[in-house]
Amino acid sequence: MDITRRTVFIAGATSGIGLELARRFAAAGSTVVVGGRRTGLLDRLSAEGFATVPVDVTDQESVDRARDTVLAGHPDLDTVVTMSGVMLPEDLRDPAHFSVTERTMETNLLGTVRVVDAFTPHLTGRGAGTFVTVTSGIAFLPFPLLPAYAASKAGVHAYSEALRAQLDGTGVEVCELVPPAVATTPEQARLNPRALGLAEFAGEVMDLLATEPTPREVLVQAVLMHRWAERDGTYDELVAQRSQALATLPGHR
To answer: What is the average pLDDT across 227-231?
Structure first.
């Protein structure tokens, strides 16, 4: 991917990884449109020089409006990044957890599908472009405290594989970004000293995206132990280690 000449729409880029990637693409020379729900943050990014568009990936009409706005202003759009997501703990012994499951699936999995569906006719029509879907190391090495998050990201991985196969021959490539734990705030860095720093993560991601050909999966070094745990025979041990976090739930030990 030539990251210096792209026109990129990132759904879910008002903060965190999405915002850092937006800034990296822009710094490299690409045109970036930032999408998100929080209008106050969109206003700040607009003042920073970004094109912005409101979008709620859980709402089909909102996604369709965002698509129309983006394509009206940027008919040469060639890259779509599906960054929107939520990550929430759940106690599966508590029936009330289902509302969290619904919200997580609606945002992470169905939200990805909505955004991809909205832009597929445009990218296939131009005969070239890239979808960047966003999963997680947790898609491949579950974190039992986050069951729906893990399931949603595993679903996005499977969907990305199918999308890539179905778009083969159209000129549209599908690249799956697989982040490990990334500290997007000082507080997150304090709570998880093992988390990768945001700047380090984004730098490695941009380097990988710029390789030829564009990788099917963007795997920074810190996520390899998660991605290949089953192959490497470390899966059970690592899941057991991660299960210790269940002690933070009421009634768990």
So the answer is: 97
